[in-house]
Each structure stands twice: as C-alpha cells, then as structure tokens.
Amino acid sequence: MGAKKLFSLLFIGLAVVTMFLFSCKNNKKMDAKNNPLLQEIYDTPEGVPPFDKIKLDDYLPAFKEAIKLHNQEIDKIVNNPDEPTFENTIVAMDKSGIVLSNVSNIFFNLNEAATSPQMQKIAQDVSPMLSEHTDKIYMNPKLFDRVKAVYDKREKLGLSEADSMLLQKTYEAFVRNGALLPEDKKKELMEINKKLSLLSLKFGQHVLAEINRYKMVIGKKEDLAGLPQSLIQAAAEMAMKTGDSGKWVFTIQKPMLIPFLTYSQRRDLREQLFKAYITQGDHNDSLDNKAIVNEIVNLRLQKARLLGYKTWADFRLTDRMAKTPGIVYNLLDNVWDKALPAARKEAEHLQQMIYSDGDTFKLQPWDWWYYAEKVRKKEYNLDENELRPYFKLENVLEKGVFYTANRLYGLTFRRADDIPVYHPDVVAYRVYQGNDSLMAVLYYDFYPRQSKRSGAWTTVFRGEYYKDGKRVPPVVSIVCNFTKPTGDMPSLLTLEEVRTLFHETGHALHEILTNVPYRTLSGTNVALDFVELPSQIMEEWAVSPEVLRVYARHYQTGEVMPDELIKKIDNAKYFNQGFATVEYMAAAYLDMDWHTITEQKDYDVNAFEKASMDRIGLIPQIVVRYRSTYFQHAFSGGYSAGYYVYLWADVLVQDAFDYFRQEGLFNPEVAAKFRHLLESGGAVDPMKLYIQFRGRKPVVMPLLRARGFIK
After folding, report:
1. I want to staple 704 with a disulfide (CB 3.0 to 4.6 A). Which of 233, 244, 391, 710 is the partner?
2. For 55-108, how does the pLDDT look when each residue is reduced to its tens digit (9 = 90+)?
3. β-pairing, 475-479 with 437-445?
C-alpha cells in the first residue's frame, strides 16, 4: 500500500470519526435532557432564564418536548381514576405546562425585543403548533367533563375567594375556547385559531420590517435647523450604522420621529417623515397589511359567531369590567364630546400662531408638534429642551421610579450584574422587600435597535406562583425605546418618556407584588380594562412636584430642577390635552369599529378607516394615533376590542389618585390599601378590589378635571 493511499485512507477514517463525534455532539445538544430551556426553575442565579446558554437551534426541540410534557400532565389529569376534585383537576391544571410556559415566554419575548430572521421563521413554525396544542386541551371532552363536574358542585366545596376565581376562570376558558361546540365546529374553530395566530405574527413582522427599511438621509447641515444637539448626534450615529457616514439619518422610530416633528424648521422634511410613519403597511407591496387586517377581522367575526356572540367585541368584553360594546362606546362618547371641542380650539390657536409667523398655509398633522411646542414656549414658558437635562435616565430610574416604589411599598432595587441577560443593553435588578426578602428579578431594556419592535411594554419570563408552599418570585422585563447615549451625552428623556418609564414600572410592580397561589391568577392576569390602573397611576407620581424634586437633577451639575421649572410643568398640565385625548380616542374608536362589524366581506381597509373617523368627526389636523395597517395593539398585540382600556383605566386612576392627594402622596394607610389591590392579582373581582381600596365605585369627574375639560 503506497504512502499516499495509506494517508488517504487514514484521512477518510479520521473524517468519518470526526463526523461521528460531531453527530454525537449534536445529538447530545439536541437531547431534551441537555436543552437549556427545558426546566421549571433554571440552574442560574434566582432561577432566571439562561440567556448565555440558549442557542437558536434549542427552541424548536424545546417547544416540541415541552408540548409533549404538557400533554403527559394533561393525560394524567384526564385519566385520574379518582372523582374530579378542585385539587386533582383545577389546581392540577394550573400547575401543568410550566415548562412550556417558560419556553414560550423566553422565545416570544425575545422575538419582540431581540429578533432575527431565524427567530421569525421559528415563530411561523411554532405559532400554529401552539395554537393546535391549546385547542386540543380546551376541546378535550374528557378533561372538560372533569372541570364541569367540579364547577357544577362549586357551591358545596367551601372554596376560598382565590379558589373560586380559579375555578370560574378555568371553566370559562374552556367554554370560550369551544368546549361546548359539536365536533365539526371544534375543527372549524381550530383552523380559525391557527390562521389567526399566523396572521397576527405576520402583521407584526411587517410593521417591524417597515420601520427598519425606512430612512430619511440629510446631507446638508442647514437642513438640521432647529433640531436639538442630542438628536443630531443620534442621527449621525445612525448614519454610520446605515452606511451613510458624514450625513444624518432619521428613522420613524418614536425617539427620532417626535423630536424631529417638534423641532425641525424644515416643514417639507417634517411632512416627509410624518407621511412615512402614517403609511406603514400601506404601500401595496410585500409588507402591505391591508389584506391581513381584512382576513383577521373576518376570521375574528367568524370565531365569535361560532361561540355564540354577535361580534368579536361582544366575545372579548364578557370577561372585562366594561362587559359590553355599548358601555365602551358610552364612555368614549361622553369623553369625546368634551375632548373634540378642546382639540378644535387648540387647532385654531395653532393656526393663529402660523399666521402670526407671517405664513399663510393651513395647519396640517405634521405641523402640530412644531407649533404646539411654540405655544408651550410662548404661553407656558416651557421648553422641552429645557427639561431634558434634568431627566437623565439613570436619575429618573433610581431616584424617581425606585424611590417612589420604596416610599409606597418598602421595595429596594439592587443591580445584579451576575444575572445573565439577552442583550448587552439589558440591565438586571434584584427587587427586595426591605433588605432581605427577594420579591422578583427585574430587567430593563432601554434603547432602540433594529431587532426590537417600537413602543414600550412590560412582560414576564416567569410569573409569580407557589411551589411546595413557597412563593416562586417572578422574573419581569420592561422594554423601552429611549434615546441611546451618544459620546459624552447620556440618555436624556423627554417628559413623555419619563412618564413611560414610571408607567411600565407600574405594570412591573403589579407582577412583583402579587402574592397569590395560582399562576393563572398571578400578576397582570386580570381584566384588560383593569390592567392599566397600576401602570397609569404611577405616572401621577412622576410629575408630582414632591417626587420631581428628588429625581429631576441636571446631568452636568447635579442641581435639583428649580421650583420655577417644576411650576411650569404643573401649569402646563392641561396643555395640548385636547390633541392627546382625541388622537388616542380616535384609535380606540377605530379598534371598536373594526371589531363590532357584523358582516363577513372584503373590506376596503382605508375606506373603512375613513368612514370610522368621519363618523366621530375627527378634525383633519389630527391623524388617528395608529392607522389600521400598523395598529399592533389591535392586530398583533392582544388589545383587540381593547384599546379603550387606557381611558377606562384613567377614570380609575384619576379617582384613585384623588384619594392619595387628599390623604398624602405617600400616606402609608392608603398605600397599604393600594398594595392589597396589586397583591391580589386576578384572584378577586376587579370592581370589588377597587371598592375595597376607594370605599365606593369610581366616578368620571376627576378624569375630566385632570384633562382640563371641566373646571
């Protein structure tokens, strides 16, 4: 045998062995036992997700194995030879599926905050799989028989309030998911659910792709006239990322869009950027969302009819405080009647400002922010750029948000650099009751990136629950899109972003403070029109002079915001409220109109939207906050027939905060009552919780006063 041939055979043999070992390694990695996702409590500090170990290839096998495990848990409940009881059926269901919940929470949260083309492909594969899995559970006749057997004898079981709520919600979940339907209708419902899960996913992916593909490139320095230096610097850094070095790139992400509309002296460029924003998903191309909106609303109506409801809104509202579309429209109409005249007066005022500048054009939507800011400077002597140096992100968070949570509830927050995170921008905190009892782990993800959707939201990687008699602390995440630090310039927030940070932490506190035994009732698992109360009320502390004096410090000098400036903020609290209320409420009406349709047909999406806005008399100077083709709350974010909830919650908020104003912003007795509301999660009826806190039902007058619509 020649040396070359021997070497060749040895090489081939080595290659075969290498391939075998590589195959074994891959098989080991893909083995369920070695998948880092497949645990109830992870082998990490505080049991948080092992982000540093998870690979893209882990997700699909983890989903398949977690579904298998959940099915085994369900089969054990179904085939239990003992008579159905609250413990062996209802509680057992609540305890089932924890591993699948963990995998889903990690994957879908990261798909929103740190996505990639590979993750989006996995999402398309997984979404119908999960939809089918859920349907099979809720349409399992033997499982429903056991649930119904317990439900039918509920009055004789001596259940606690939390137990009764868990039983009620479990039974209703089966009914709302088709358990009472005949077999042929169940199959029809399953097909609808599969389609809806994919359509909602696709809608959101289109919006993200639209945001990422648009850029407005400015090459002349004079075209930056009026813009704050921080925005110019951010645009220069964006240009470097997009291959436009030496120029300035502006996107339709809100941290760039709103400041540009507010300060740019180039009216034509304001128009260009604004129109790019309001035409997302409406370009008749591969990212167009009109056909998806059409299919979603028709499928939702079909699903509602299958389940015995007149409209999708009727179906969605049955488990909320509002209960019926009529009650929602009644609230909207009552506030709209006060807000629209205020917006008209504001529009007239801005038009006069245009004329006083020597211009003759009519006020357009892309002019509103610019001239509103002029009014604020002239009449309230309040300049947003005058405020921002006092709103350094770290100060707002640690000396504002954390301070407020500590004064109200005794919580302390300690940065936790040993906890794995899913992106370098993310920071983690351990949250303690006092100094010793761990309440939660809390992540903050502050800055925009191409892999993150727009907006701000709070979510959980693990909700609170009890295991073996001990509370398992929640793992909560807050995701924002604030201006990123550039060079020696820290992240300086606008007043609206300050409110957003307080708002989202309010959601997080709902999760952190919850102390109920069941996952199903934990944290923000409450009626959708109740869930915004804990978040929106935190915004009231954000702008309270007493709290501003603690956290609003100049980022260079450390000086506290002067009382004169704090007074300006307070004096300007009614400023632009007509616009803010009308812009938001127009979207709430549009959402309700889409989901109270009673006829399945091919809708002209833009014509439908125009008719909706014409019906309420939206003035042409204001565009609905979210047009249909990028209305993620309604079509991919879980708020269908639910965008009204922010207004509903603000009725509760203003009424509740009046109580704090009367008794003291940090009155320990009032704070303890509100904490009870947060601790209860979904274990108590929300109206009962509110009455326990306030001593009566909420009234709308404080809301109208807070917005300056009545004296």
Report:
1. 710
2. 999 999 999 999 999 999 999 999 999 999 999 999 999 999 999 999 999 999
3. parallel
Q: At the topology level of CATH, where does 290-382+579-635 sit?
A: Neurolysin; domain 3 (1.10.1370)
The whole-model pTM stands at 0.88
Buried b / exposed e along 53-79 (16+ C-beta atoms within 10 A): ebeeebbbbbbebbbebbbebbeebbe
The radius of gyration of the chain from alpha carbons, rounded to an integer in Å, stands at 27
pLDDT in tens, 616-663: 999 999 999 999 999 999 999 899 999 999 999 999 999 999 999 999
Architecture of the 388-574+645-706 domain: Orthogonal Bundle (1.10)
CB 475 within 8 A of CB 102: no
User: pLDDT averaged over the chain?
Assistant: 94
Coarse DSSP helix, strand, coil percentages of the chain, rounded to the nearest 5 percent:
60, 5, 30
Name the band, by pLDDT with cuts 50, 70 and 90, for residue 32. Answer: low
Q: Give DSSP secondary structure letters for 389-431.
A: GGBBHHHIIIIIIHHHHHHHH-EEEEE-TTS--SSTTEEEEEE
Catalytic annotation present for 559 = no
Query: Strand, helix or coil at 189?
Result: helix
How far apart are alpha carbons 288 and 507 in whole angstroms? 32
User: Residue 641: CB partners within 8 Å, gap ≥ 6?
Assistant: 312, 313, 316, 317, 325, 591, 592, 595, 596
Q: Which CATH architecture has domain 45-180?
A: Up-down Bundle (1.20)
- Distance (Å, whole) CA 263 – CA 230: 12
Residues in Cβ contact with 187 at an 8 Å cutoff, skipping those fewer than 6 apart: none
Q: For the segment 491-533, what is each residue's pLDDT rounded down to a tens digit?
A: 999 999 999 999 999 999 999 999 999 999 999 999 999 999 9
Residue-level pLDDT at 35: 96
Strand-pairing partners, residue 489, are 486
Is the Cβ–Cβ distance between 415 and 517 less than 8 Å? no
Side-chain-side CA neighbours of 237 within 13 Å: the count stands at: 15
For 91, the 3-state DSSP assignment is helix
Q: How much of the chain, in percent, has pLDDT values that exceed 90?
A: 93
Catalytic one of 504, 511, 540, 583: 504
What CA–CA distance (Å, rounded) separates 443 from 414? 11
Distances in whole angstroms, Cα of residue 76 to Cα of each of 69, 93, 144, 464, 543: 11, 10, 14, 24, 53
User: If we measure between CA atoms, which residue out of 688, 584, 700 comes closest to residue 652?
Assistant: 700
Q: Which residues contact 8 (CB under 8 A, 6 or more apart)?
A: none
